[in-house]
Amino acid sequence: MKRFKLLFVAAALFVGFTTTVNAQSKVAHIDTQALVEAMPEMKAAQSQLDKLQKTYDTEIKSMVKELEAKMTQYDSEAQTKTDEENQKRVVEVQDMQKNINAYRQQALQDLQKKEVDLFQPILEKARNAIQKVARAQGIQYVLDSATGNGVILADGTDLLSSVKQELKI
After folding, report:
1. In the prediction, which pLDDT does 16 show?
2. Which pLDDT tens digit goes with each residue over 41-87?
3. N or C: which end of the chain has fewer CB within 10 A?
4. Angle value at C-alpha 150, between 145 and 153, nearest 5 degrees
5. What are the DSSP E strand ranges found in the chain?
């Protein structure tokens, strides 16, 4: 009877140890940043975002150039104008500066919104592919091994190539 209990305890410990080893092997990692950068959709989205940013930059430069031209004109004509006219011109220049700053802020907000709108579906597609591959391989936990995400050592299963295959990239 004692041998049976001893064998039972040994078997229970063996099963517990085996389960612990198996649980450790069901962890993998992937560099999500490298994955997303490799996706063709990301390149197209980044191109769209760059184009929009260049449009805003061109418009802002045009507005600044117009402001500088007015300031130069007003400075050269200041001696020949009345104080009242010069005050009106100062207010006009200040309003133009406010408009440029407001346009800059709006452009920045528009760019941020566009970035979210463009990148969210790409990130969702990548996440779904990671989940699909991990489940197919029986992996329970996937860590992001991109720089700065807290993974110190990533010697385990790397899903990057498998997920790229899934996405056909």
Report:
1. 53
2. 999 999 999 999 999 999 999 999 999 999 999 999 988 989 999 99
3. N
4. 60
5. 27-30, 141-144, 157-158
- Tell me the average pLDDT of the chain: 85
Q: What is the pLDDT of residue 24?
A: 54
pLDDT at residue 153, as a whole number: 57
Of the candidates 104, 106, 77, 103, the one whose C-alpha atom is nearest the C-alpha of residue 90 is: 77
Closest CA to 34 of 23, 26, 42, 24: 42
Instruction: Please report, for residues 17, 65, 138, the alpha-carbon distance to residue 22 in angstroms, rounded to integers and kept in the order given.
Output: 9, 67, 11
pLDDT at 56: 97
CB 158 within 8 A of CB 30: yes
The set of residues, in sequence order, having a beta carbon less than 8 Å from that of 154 and lying 6+ positions away, is 29, 143, 145
Cβ distance 74 to 93 under 8 Å? yes
Contact 139, 81 (CB under 8 A): no
